[in-house]
Design a protein that fits this description.
Strand order of the largest sheet of chain B: 1-8-9-5-4-2-3
Shape of chain A: globular
Order of helices and strands of chain B: HHHEHHEHHEHEHEEEHEHEHHHH
Helix content of chain A: 25-40%
Radius of gyration of chain B: 25 Å
Oligomer: heterodimer
Order of helices and strands of chain A: HEHHEHHEHEHEHEEEHEEHEHEHH
Number of strands of chain B: 9
Strand content of chain B: 5-15%
Helix content of chain B: 40-55%
Structural class of chain A: alpha/beta
Protein name (chain A): Branched chain keto acid dehydrogenase E1 subunit beta
Structural class of chain B: alpha/beta
Largest sheet of chain A: 5 strands, mixed
Distance between the termini of chain B: 53 Å
Chain lengths: ~375, ~475
């Protein structure tokens, strides 16, 4: 049945092309009504756009920060920016503006603003494009206070940038470059998992007296919706959060991947009777060694997962530190479930990402070690 | 601020409003006169471009009203304000007869055009002279001290003292300075004490930078001189951001940004220029074109007409000056400052000069240039000699005073030098502070780890030279 339907579909398409030429086909003219219908009409042979590899779980409505509103992640970011702008009564178009297309200029300019003491929030359109600004971030922003003996600093600079896989972003709209910056003393690197976290962490970055990079998981911009306080509030930096307590395995991730490992924890409980402790690292640099180690001392097993490539990824730093601090507590080698050591591919994204099945499998191996 | 009438276009004369846009074309076949009037070029240009082009120059793109009409054969492109031409012609960059070099004094220190004489009081001009010569003396002694292994590294300012002092003198004390590394004369003019110059070079306990950087990486918050960093041209977009913040704060402050002609090749320079123009920042870009970037001569650095010719490409008012003429540098900087603040727009000053010394103590420039070439500049066209001749011709200085000042300045430098040598280096704990405003737990652990290490292995480290 499916095969007939498929070939019928092909026939229809060919005929349409022959009759009116390729241009008409493109415009949809001269085609049988309902031609462009759902992909399932073509049957199993047809490709369909993938469903998300995670399920966003909103956190319970926060009560301690006053009135809340349903916001998705980008609305939460906007809310944080609005709160921040409202602190300075001098309004004007000269406060939120476009610049020429030049990341090294954007960050350098932001540093200069911050040097005078004003607050600068610079946006890099995709984290994949942050590299022209790498020199300004690593050689300048990170070292400003240190090299001047604290005569000058650019602590009031925050750089925010969309980050991580989005389903179809490929090499240049999917990257997670936190590991490059983790190697740079002097800056802070933060990745939120949800709208509520995003607003609180972003406000903390803006108010922090050190230059901060805030990576926003773009796939969550619309997919993540929850109740977020309307008023400003802060979530502390360099503090990881245990979002699910457990006793057998510690799972660590940040950003979108937190939702993947959360689901893995549920699967482990259901299928294996294994109790997982799930930690959202939140700040990559400086990272909360104590919370992670405390957890591993309890569970004896650690799995770290991120989309970024395995080699030199931030999981290697966590792994190395944990084995130093908790060697005798470990029941199994530390497991890293990460992207492959390749650029981020387009059509192969479902195979590339460290999805729940890969995490589940690694967890199972650890349990049986 | 945006929303208010933009004084930048209103205040400038038509010639300057035009030359910013048209200098690229104007430079094509004729010498560009930066000052009054359009000259011979004027009428044909105006006719070619028409009144509509003129009106357009007074408005922002987003404020323009476009009236589309099928009968309108004029260009409608948002990207350029220009007329059509039906003759195929490439604009010829003019490097044979480039942007002329503004000067006030001749090589003998005589004022050429009396109307350009800034008429500065004697006291001020003497301060110019003393700053330049004191810098020169300090350079000689510190260069020598590196040769003797007392400091690790040094960069002299020989031949460029005029660019530092002339420009610094034209600024307000609170104007923010972003430098590259060869602008010590700016700090000298702002009365940065010899003790602190030396402290930074020696990295001793008095160093405001806490011993973290190589010599000549000065900084002074009090004197509004942002700490120098080694990467080239990184200061350029930063200076622009600082200028933007100063504009928003209505601070009546200009930012000056120094860099060499080599650093001007960096991407950060392009970024800075473009941002300054589009975001309308009160900034002076001051390029010290001294002929060399270490061993790379200007012929291998660029093919166009130096750095001044790039300004108009960004929409920046630009001038080229004789960097060895301290009055020319002063006049240009003074006028640029006045207009940058009044009109919120950037200015580009390219100060032509010559790097008489080696790039640094790690360089031996005899490997790539002749002694004759260096001697010419040292003997025939030196900013200090030209000013001295000027002072002498005015009766403001003589050989007696010269002798006395040489002795006195040398004594001052030697005293500061000896003191700096004797001081201890700062406590090694300062390795760990100021990375962040607060010290993170991991870093504190590392600090403790070094302390424990030194308890056991301290004899292998030069602890005696460091503060406990």
């Amino acid at each position: 049945m499916a095969a007939v339907a498929a070939s019928a579909g092909w026939l229809l398409r060919l005929r349409a092309a022959g009759a009116d030429g390729p241009w008409r086909r493109l415009c949809g003219a001269g085609l049988p009504r309902g031609f462009l219908q759902s992909a399932s009409a073509y049957g199993a042979a047809a490709q369909r756009r993938q469903v998300a590899h995670f399920t966003f779980q909103p956190d319970p409505e926060p009560v301690e920060y006053g009135q809340t509103q349903k916001m998705n992640l980008f609305q939460a970011v906007t809310s944080a920016l609005d709160n921040s702008l409202a602190k300075d009564p001098t309004a004007g178009k000269d406060r939120v503006f476009n610049t020429p297309l030049c990341e090294q200029g954007i960050v350098g300019f932001g540093i200069g603003i911050a040097v005078t003491g004003a607050t600068a929030i610079a946006e890099i359109q995709f984290a994949d494009y942050i590299f022209p600004a790498f020199d300004q971030i690593v050689n300048e922003a990170a070292k400003y206070r240190y090299r001047s003996g604290d005569l000058f600093n650019c602590g009031s600079l925050t750089i925010r940038s969309p980050w991580g896989c989005v389903g179809h972003g490929a090499l240049y709209h999917s990257q997670s470059p936190e590991a490059f910056f983790a190697h740079c003393p002097g800056i802070k690197v933060v990745v939120p998992r949800s709208p509520f976290q995003a607003k609180g962490l972003l406000l903390s970055c803006i108010e922090d007296k050190n230059p901060c990079i805030f990576f926003e998981p773009k796939i969550l911009y619309r997919a993540a919706v929850e109740q977020v306080p309307v008023e400003p509030y802060n979530i502390p930096l360099s503090q990881a959060e245990v979002i699910r307590e457990g006793s057998d395995v510690t799972l660590v991730a940040w950003g979108t991947q937190v939702h993947v490992i959360r689901e893995v924890a549920a699967m482990a409980q259901e299928k294996l009777g294994v109790s997982c402790e799930v930690i959202d690292l939140r700040t990559i640099l400086p990272w909360d060694v104590d919370t992670v180690c405390k957890s591993v001392i309890k569970t004896g097993r650690l799995l770290v997962s991120h989309e970024a490539p395995l080699t030199g990824g931030f999981a290697s730093e966590i792994s190395s530190t944990v084995q130093e601090e908790c060697f005798l507590n470990l029941e199994a080698p530390i497991s890293r479930v990460c992207g492959y050591d390749t650029p981020f591919p387009h059509i192969f994204e479902p195979f590339y990402i460290p999805d729940k099945w890969k995490c589940y499998d690694a967890l199972r191996k650890m349990i049986n070690y | 601020m945006k929303g208010q009438p933009r004084s930048r276009r209103g205040e400038g004369r038509i010639s300057e409003g035009w030359s910013a846009k048209m200098a690229v074309a104007a430079a094509a076949a004729r010498v560009w006169r930066p000052s009054r009037g359009l000259g011979r070029a004027g009428l044909p240009l105006l006719r070619l471009l028409g009144a509509r082009g003129l009106a357009r120059s007074h408005t922002h793109r987003w404020q323009q009203q476009r009236h589309f009409s099928s009968l309108d054969d004029k260009p409608q492109f948002p990207g350029a304000s220009a007329e059509f031409i039906d003759k195929l012609e490439f604009i010829q960059p003019n490097v044979i007869s480039g942007i002329p070099i503004y000067r006030v004094m001749d090589r003998q220190g005589q004022i050429i055009n009396p109307s350009e004489d800034p008429h500065l009081p004697q006291e001020k001009v003497l301060k110019f002279y003393k700053s330049m010569t004191l810098l020169n003396t300090m350079d000689r002694i510190l260069y020598e001290s590196q040769r003797q292994g007392r400091i690790s590294f040094y960069m002299t300012n020989y031949g460029e003292e005029g660019t530092h002092v002339g420009s610094a003198a034209a600024l307000d004390d609170t104007d923010l300075v972003f430098g590259q590394y060869r602008e010590a004369g700016v700090l000298m003019y702002r009365d940065y004490p010899l003790e602190l110059f030396m402290a930074q070079c020696y990295g001793n306990v008095s160093d405001l930078g806490k011993g973290r950087q190589m010599p000549v990486h000065y900084g002074c918050r009090e004197r509004h001189f942002v700490t120098i960093s080694s990467p080239l041209a990184t200061q350029i977009p930063q200076a622009v951001g600082a200028a933007y913040a100063a504009k928003r704060a209505n601070a009546n402050r200009v930012v000056i940004c120094y860099f060499g002609e080599g650093a001007a090749s960096e991407g950060d320079a392009h970024a800075g220029f473009n941002f300054a123009a589009t975001l309308e920042c009160p900034i002076i870009f001051f390029c010290r074109n001294n002929g060399y970037a270490i061993s790379t001569p200007t012929s291998e650095q660029y093919r166009g007409d130096g750095i001044a010719a790039r300004g108009p490409g960004y929409g920046i008012l630009s001038i080229r000056v004789d960097g060895n003429d301290v009055f020319a540098v002063y006049n240009a900087t003074k006028e640029a400052r006045r207009r940058a603040v009044a009109e919120n727009q950037p200015f580009l000053i390219e100060a032509m000069t010559y790097r008489i010394g080696h790039h640094s103590t790690s360089d031996d420039s005899s490997a790539y240039r002749s002694v004759d070439e260096v001697n010419y500049w040292d003997k025939q066209d030196h900013p200090i000699s030209r000013l001295r001749h000027h002072l002498q011709s005015r009766g403001w200085w003589d050989d007696e005073q010269e002798k006395a000042w040489r002795k006195q300045s040398r004594k001052k430098v030697m005293e500061a030098f000896e003191q700096a040598e004797r001081k201890l280096k700062p406590n090694p704990n300062l390795i760990f502070s100021d990375v962040y405003q607060e010290m993170p737990a991991q870093l504190r652990k590392q600090q403790e780890s070094l302390a424990r290490h030194l308890q056991t292995y301290g004899e292998h480290y030069p602890l005696d030279h460091f503060e406990k």
